[in-house]
Amino acid sequence: MVGIDQARPIIQQALDLGITYFDTANQYSNGRSEEIIGEVLKEHRDEVFFGTKVFFPMGSGVNERGLSRIHLTQQIQDSLKRLQTDYIDLYHTHRWDDTTPIEETLRTLDNLVHQGKVRYLGTSSMYAWQFAKALWTSDKHGLARFETMENHYNLVYREEEREMIPFCQDQKIWITP
Q1: Is 95 helix (H, G, I), strand (E, B) or coil?
Q2: Positions marked catalytic
Q3: How many domains does the chain have?
Q4: How far is residue 76's CA from residue 164's CA, in Å, rounded to a whole number?
Q5: Quick one: which of 91, 128, 94, 86 has its CA closest to 110?
Q6: What is the pLDDT of residues 71-117, one digit of tens each?
Q7: Cα–Cα distance between 67 and 97 in angstroms, integer?
């Protein structure tokens, strides 16, 4: 883990090179990644786009993990505080949650969008059938949809070309590998 003093020149160089999208997660270094990004970029908030994720445990309690209403509601507040901002540009669910009904997750995320805490929704690392189920549920209930898929895709792992990428193309979903 790099400290803030080591991160500052790296982030400044990224800005100088025209990079404006900064992606992190609440779980990275137990929130420290969000704190560093928030501190270093607070003077540039109107010029940058923040993406962060939620899912993995942030404590030992049963409600401190996953995509339940209680966890999402707590974690958005914590992420906003650590990032020193009033809103998250792109809020990703980091994984599929088998223990929480997808409708509960999507209703909670929709509320965060309507409250102005989140501008866009994204997701990552799931099967195409799970993603289809999530989009179908959003459409059925008139809820905010996922607009991006952060999938596992690189020169070595190309399985996403079989179903996920064509599905995202069909649904007009941005892919952020």
Answers
A1: coil
A2: 28
A3: 1
A4: 27
A5: 91
A6: 999 999 999 999 999 999 999 999 999 999 999 999 999 999 999 99
A7: 6
Residue 56's domain comprises 4-175
Among 66, 69, 71, 62, which Cα is nearest to 98's?
Answer: 66
Beta strands in 29-171, from DSSP E residues, in sequence order: 49-54, 88-93, 118-124, 146-150
Residue 96: exposed, middle, or buried by beta-carbon count in 10 A (0-12, 13-18, 19+)? buried
Token pair, residue 48, equals 């940058």
d(CA 88, CA 119): 6
CATH, residue 125:
3.20.20.100
- Residues 167, 135: contact at Cβ < 8 Å? no
pTM: 0.95
